[in-house]
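Summary: Need help interpreting a holo structure output

Steps to reproduce:
1. Submit the protein chain below together with the SMILES for zinc ion.
2. Request a joint structure prediction with the ligand placed.
3. Inspect the structure token block that comes back.

Expected: a single structure record containing both the chain and the bound molecule.
Actual: see attached output.

Input attached:
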Amino acid sequence: MTLRRIQSDEPGPGQVLALRTMIWESELSRKDIQVEYRWVPAHKGIEGNEKADQQATKAAYKCRGKRIETQNPPSYLNYVSFAHINRRLTELKWEESKKKIQEMGRESKHSYRYDLAKRGGNSAVMGSRKSIAARFYQLKTGHALLGKYLRRIGKRRDMKCWWCGHEYQTRDHLFKWCKRWKREQKRLWVDGQEGEEGYEGVEKVLKKPKISLPMSLVFAEEKCSQALLDFLYLTDVGRISGVVEEAENSDHEESSDGGV
Ligand SMILES: [Zn+2]
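--- attached output ---
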């Protein structure tokens, strides 16, 4: 199931995991490390499995906290389990995101031109301020600082929305339903913006009510980018303030639920 899922980055359950796996794999292949995925039954007594498990633990332990720099990877890297890849990747992405946000905070007056060609960035995002564009990409790829993500990586104990108290602070919740951002949501989905630099509400652009529009689709549609960027400009959705501090003070726990 997982192996099938990671072969495509189609929207749907597991998309984030699939995207991450692809990023991770391309990072490794840039370092000439070939990745091979194998399904191993989680049953004791199967020959090789226990050994693979030991190796995976060893590998995960060894590469914790630093990047893999070797040109010729030691053989145990061939056997890193999927859970370990996922955890390691989450750690990497978290560190990267934090670093990026800090950089962007320092140069927030500049436009966001940061290797956009490579990322296939669009012009609306390119023209906007770096900090907003950074949030845009994090929200688009599922690495934004939302309750759901922070819980998954073990930085928070629950997925509660810290603005309205709703049980699950997901991307969907913040863009569509969170009571804190009602006015901004109306503008995003219905009203749009008048004038020369204006845009239509997302419901008009995509000709469907917001309840039947998955956020992945809205983020994928370039005609909706300006509306999304304005929403981010007007709200604190995906912002780091107050959240990272809490994350850094909390004890580091290994979250074992893996809930993707
Ligand atoms: Zn909320």
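--- end attachment ---

Reviewer comment: DSSP finds 14 helices and no strands in the chain. Residues 2-80 form one domain.
Status: needs-info
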